[in-house]
Amino acid sequence: MLKDKVCLITGANRGIGRAILELFAKEGATVYANARKDGALKDAAEELQNKYKCKVFPVYFDVRDSDAVKAFFVSLQKDQGRLDVLVNNAGIMKDTLIGMANKDLMRDVFETNVFAVMDVLQYASRLMKRKRMGSIINFSSVVGVKGVSGQMVYSASKGAVISLTRSAAKELAPYHIRVNSVAPGMIDTDMLNELSEDQKEKNIQSIGWGRLGTPTDVANAVLFLASDLSEFITGQILGVDGCTVI
Questions:
Q1: Based on CB atoms within 10 Å of each CB, which residue in 41, 67, 106, 228 is the most buried?
Q2: What is the dihedral of CA 21, 23, 24, 26, to 10 degrees?
Q3: pLDDT of residue 195
Q4: What span, in angstroms and rounded, lies between the C-alpha atoms of 188 and 211?
Q5: In angstroms, what is the C-alpha Rg of the chain?
Q6: What 3-state class would DSSP assign to 233?
Q7: 4-27 pLDDT tens trace
Q8: Order of strands, sheet of 55-60, starting from the edge strand that comes earlier in the sequence
Q9: Interval 182-231: pLDDT, tens
Q10: Residue-wise DSSP of 28-44
Q11: Global pTM value
């Protein structure tokens, strides 16, 4: 489904990002897999290249560092001359009650979940405009749609992703660049490890499907939006939440 497509996945070293990387490699993409820590993707890249006979290039930079983001895209333009798919996956979650939400926490969450998303999207869209085609997939969350107690800052950041996705989709539509967002519900990743078993069970009871989502559940949705099957779909927020009621 992604044969001959050049793709960038941010935050590709674990959880949902790692599942997307695996699926994109399986589907024939040339993948630039981003992580912040040097060497974090070395083993995964070698494993996937041997397994699927594909091309996986680990690229290490902090998505919050505008100079590093720019340097990557300059290099990508030189090496490939194009970008077909951007998966803006990198993000952080910091929960706090309203009275404990200080400016440092707000700034940290928004720098990663919003400002970095816009920064990477800007550079990606410039490259995509040259070919007048491309797919950008941003990561929101079910809490960005519905809100939740105790996550005002995180919810606000993911709500901002929804708004910027819809606005970017309108602006980039004339260039045939699709911009959509995936909004996962409660997914079984490291982010849930901080919850007690009682809390996890309570969360599962709020999911109509009766289980936590998996990174593969989300990766499958991302694959659809990255592929030509979604050629006429843009400006949409795709919930992957198993009918979660918050």
A1: 41
A2: 120
A3: 65
A4: 9
A5: 17
A6: coil
A7: 999 999 999 999 999 999 999 999
A8: 55-60, 30-35, 6-9, 85-88, 134-139, 177-184, 237-240
A9: 999 989 888 777 666 777 788 888 899 999 999 999 999 999 999 999 99
A10: T-EEEEEESSTTTTHHH
A11: 0.94
Tokens of 69: 């983001």
Q: Token pair of 160, please?
A: 């901002």
Whether 184 and 218 have beta carbons less than 8 Å apart is answered as yes
Pair 87, 8: CB distance under 8 Å: yes
Alpha carbons 220 and 222: distance in angstroms, whole number? 5
User: Is 1 domain-assigned?
Assistant: no
Number of domains in the chain: 1
Reading the block at residue 93, the tokens are 């979650």
120-174 tens-digit pLDDT: 999 999 999 999 999 999 999 999 999 888 889 999 999 999 999 999 999 999 9
The two three-digit tokens of residue 37, written as one number: 């820590």
Residue 245, in any domain of the structure:
no
| Containing structural domain, residue 198 | 6-240
Task: Name the residue with tokens 């309108």.
Answer: 170
- Exactly one of 32, 60, 123, 154 is catalytic; name it: 154
- Cα 188 to Cα 204: distance, rounded to the nearest angstrom: 11
CATH number at residue 188: 3.40.50.720
CA neighbours closer than 13 Å in the CB half-sphere of residue 210: 0
Nearest to residue 181, comparing CAs of 242, 112, 238? Answer: 238
Q: Determine the Cα–Cα distance for residues 96 and 143; give it in Å rounded to an integer.
A: 14
Asked whether residue 23 is domain-assigned, the answer is: yes
> Is residue 73 one of the residues assigned to a domain?
yes
Eight-state DSSP code of residue 84? -
